[in-house]
Design goal:
The chain is mainly alpha-helical. 66% of the residues lie in helices and 2% in strands. Residues 1-48 are annotated as: Disordered.
Length: 528
């Protein structure tokens, strides 16, 4: 393990080469600690004569508290340069910061890492001079968190290792730092080294997997948590429900719902919102309705969840009714609310209604349309067969269209056999993401659908020349709360022989019932 970078006595640098420099200036601590922090200031000196100091003296409030409170306000607003300036003025007045002052500044650096990358190391140097970085648990945890969130996870580990005493907070902070920086193996190894693992430690690890999109791993560690007899709390439940929603694991989600009911956790708004999202994504919209209707307090997120769920499941009228009812109950719609309303309109071809909501969003509610909203309008026109209007939206939207927005129109071109427009769209897609295999595959399929095999072959050859390989799609199924995934021709499953035997039996039954595969049917019709 490498040693910590050298810290200068003036507190102006933590690493000579690896960390960015920034014109922050922090007054170093005095050799002799100042005792009388509220003594009158010499007005003839060059030190600043600040009103905050005068107010502190008059009201007998500890000046450290007053200054730290002011610094905290700047940190919360992301004004770290003002916080640093205030801290320097505080030192010029010979007011010594305490551990809360440093925790406040370090937390600001962690919350706004683009600024914190420069200021954080300076603060670390200052705490090192006072031995707070190794002897104070809260300052040590704040340093670990700051470096991890600024992307310097190795420095975070060095700070963690140098702590003379560690508590669960410091362990959990370091595990979270590893997870957020993609150091999965290191996070698990550190988790295994923990002397005691509480529910928060388990939740930190599971949450890290969910944040990285490793939903199956998250559920696997949730099962390990249950085996360890650690009892999930509200945060654990919300995290696990998020993993279930992304995997479509309805069975496990139902189990978690029953657990929340048993433990009396259904008064928690975040759990209810997560359940609405889960059931909506799994197509169990009636269960989502039940959760929503039983909620005592509904937040804007609650309304957005049910509106989006109803919209994505084809209940357009009900989704728009909830959109209106939400406003009648005093909640102002945000950009997510309008995404739900626009989705509802696009799924049932309500073009005029969708355009009205888009106009109201911008003109009445002063919400600037985001790419998601333009994507909804493109999808609205595409589903209604107004492909040129959809193309016009793409060409005139104020931001660069992504492959999802243009891809929805390309899919509509395939449905309607509009090869010319698909070729124009391909120019956009290649410019946006030349390596996206789905763009070439979609255009190839469009050519094939209208019998232009030369065009289809050309697209496949282009993919080969560019070294683009089609990513295999996969299907998943949940059996007994376990998720099983398959790709085309997959024989890796331990019950592959039984699965293929069943497929053969189903194919035979379909043939007996008169089913003819699509490709064979086209050949028969063509020959006829």
């Amino acid at each position: 393990m490498t040693a910590l970078p050298a810290l200068t006595s003036t507190g102006t640098n933590i690493a000579t080469t690896t960390l960015p420099q920034h014109p922050y200036t922090i007054q170093p601590p005095h050799t002799t600690r100042h005792q009388d922090q509220t003594r009158p200031i010499n007005r003839d000196s060059k030190k600043p004569n600040l009103s905050l100091k005068q107010i502190s003296n008059k009201t007998s409030i500890d000046p450290v508290v007053s200054w730290t409170s002011s610094i905290s306000r700047y940190c919360r607003n992301g004004q770290l340069h003002k916080a640093a300036s205030h801290f320097t003025q505080m030192r010029l007045l010979e007011i010594d910061p305490n551990h809360v002052t440093f925790i406040t500044l370090l937390s600001g650096c962690a919350d706004f890492p683009s600024q914190g990358k420069s200021l954080g190391p300076l603060l670390h140097a200052y705490t090192r001079k006072l031995s707070l970085d190794t002897c104070n648990l809260m300052v040590g945890a704040a340093l670990v968190d700051m470096y991890a969130k600024c992307g310097h996870v190795d420095l975070a580990r060095l700070c963690f290792d140098e702590l003379k005493v560690k508590n669960p907070v410091t362990w959990n902070t370091m595990i979270d730092g590893f997870m957020r920086n993609g150091k999965i193996r290191e996070a698990i190894e550190l988790f295994d080294e923990m002397p005691e693992r509480g529910v928060i430690s388990w939740t930190v690890l599971i949450h890290g997997f969910v944040k990285k999109g490793l939903f199956e791993e998250a559920l696997e560690w949730f099962r390990k948590m249950q085996v360890s007899k650690a009892e999930p709390d509200r945060v654990t439940i919300v995290t696990v429900l998020s993993a279930c929603a992304n995997l479509g694991a309805l069975g496990l989600g139902l189990w978690v719902h029953r657990y929340a009911l048993k433990k009396g956790l259904m008064d928690n708004v975040k759990i209810c919102n997560s359940l609405i999202d889960l059931y909506s994504r799994c197509g169990a919209i009636e269960l989502a309705r039940q959760v929503f209707e039983k909620m005592g307090d509904r937040t804007l997120v609650s309304w957005n969840s049910i509106i989006g769920g109803l919209a994505s499941n084809g209940f357009t009228e009900e989704a728009l009714e909830h959109f209106d009812l939400m406003q009648k109950q005093g909640l102002k719609p945000n950009d997510v609310s309008f995404t739900g309303a626009l989705t509802a309109c696009s799924h049932t071809g309500l073009v005029d209604e969708g355009l009205k909501y888009f106009d109201i969003m911008e003109r009445v509610h002063k919400i600037s349309p985001r790419i998601e909203h333009y994507g909804c309008i493109v999808d609205l026109y595409s589903r209604a067969g107004r492909l040129e209007d959809a193309m016009s939206v793409i060409q005139n939207m104020p931001m660069k269209p992504n492959e999802v927005v243009v891809g929805s129109l390309l899919a509509a071109c395939r449905t309607r056999g509009d090869v010319e427009l698909a070729e124009r769209l391909m120019n956009y897609l290649v410019h946006l993401d030349p390596g996206a295999d789905s763009n070439y595959v979609l255009l190839s399929n469009i050519y094939a659908a209208v019998g232009k095999w030369d065009g289809a072959c050309k697209q496949r050859m282009t993919m080969k020349a560019l070294g683009i390989q089609k990513k295999p799609g996969f299907s998943s199924i949940e059996i007994g709360c376990d998720i099983h995934e398959f790709v085309a021709g997959d024989k890796s499953h331990n019950k592959a022989e039984d699965i293929y035997s069943m497929l053969e039996l189903l194919s035979f039954d379909q043939a007996l019932c008169g089913y003819v595969p699509e490709a064979m049917a086209k050949d028969m019709l063509g020959n006829g």
